[in-house]
What does this fold into?
Amino acid sequence: MEEQNLNNAGGMNQSPPSDNTVQTISQTIENPSNSASAQVKYAGFWIRFAASFVDGVIVFLMSIPLIILAFFSMGGEVENSFSVNILSLMISWGYHILMTDKYQATLGKRFVGIKVVKEDLGRASLGNLILRETAGKLLSQLIFFIGYIVVAFTSRKRALHDIIGGTVVVFDDNNIKSRNLLIGIIASIVGFFVILFFIFISITLVSLQSAREKALEKAEEGQQQYQTQEMSVEEN
It folds into this structure.
């Protein structure tokens, strides 16, 4: 009797699971990505702005050889050269698309520890990235860059080009671990191009000085010829 009473007492203490608990367990089993997506931290406006700034500096440094080439081939009219602007845009597109396709992030994004993924948090395809980086970002830049500003107001912190490309930008702890290496790489690249830039400036200054000296020599020769002609006219 005592053993039966103990069994009855134990059975009374164990209440059956509620319907909500069963439903939650079944949803977790059927959709294991739910728990992962709940832990995702989306990258906001300012962290993405910092990454874009770093990428902008890198793309500019990558374009310096092009600018140097254009300077000597187009007589210094680099600012008004349509072909240089198109090539610079192609360099930017190529950098962002290839880096994101291979590493899920550009150097700027890896520096701040964020990456680009699909809406379902899977790896973004090359098609997604091409659409995002070309047509998507061109549209984001229209009307005072409002497509970038909407990051601060959307639920998953998506820019217009994210919506067009079907992507989101999230934090990635694995990228943060490699930050010191990236700092070294970026510092090396910046140092190399800074040296290249000063070499370009030095060559340009020397060329301008040489051209100025030649112009002065021609002016002096012209003045001497003019004076000689005047003297010959006076003698006649």
